[in-house]
Design brief:
123 residues
């Protein structure tokens, strides 16, 4: 079982910055992709950014140039640096981590989600 703990959300004025963190723990053998999704009220959850084990990144068009994603493999942690925030960035942000665990002599793939952290951008 893999647990994700998110932190860093909050209230910020438009144009401000926030940094989200997500730390994974458990019987982790390896981590493949790590990423962030968000869900605004009345809307579907959507991908914000993702990063592979090799460091390749993928961003939604609406955050390109404003958000960056990074990971610390030694800490099993992924970060989302959000700059020049806009009111339309207001949402609950969810961390997602995919990889493989090793426990009891067996490997198992996992796809875990964090509990979500609220980001509110005021105009």
């Amino acid at each position: 079982q893999v647990q994700l703990v998110e932190s860093g959300g909050g209230l910020v004025q438009a144009g401000g910055s926030l940094r989200l963190s997500c730390a994974a723990s458990g019987s982790i053998f390896s981590i493949n992709a790590m990423g962030w999704h968000r869900q605004a009220p009345g809307k579907q959850r959507e991908l914000v950014a993702a990063i592979t084990g090799g460091g390749s990144t993928n961003f939604a068009d609406y955050v390109k140039g404003r958000f960056t994603i990074s990971r610390d493999n030694a800490k099993n942690t992924v970060y989302l640096q959000m700059n020049t925030l806009k009111p339309e960035d207001t949402a609950v942000y969810y961390c997602n981590v995919r990889g493989r665990t090793y426990s009891g002599g067996a490997f198992r793939d996992f796809n875990s989600w964090g509990q979500g952290t609220q980001v509110t951008v005021s105009s």
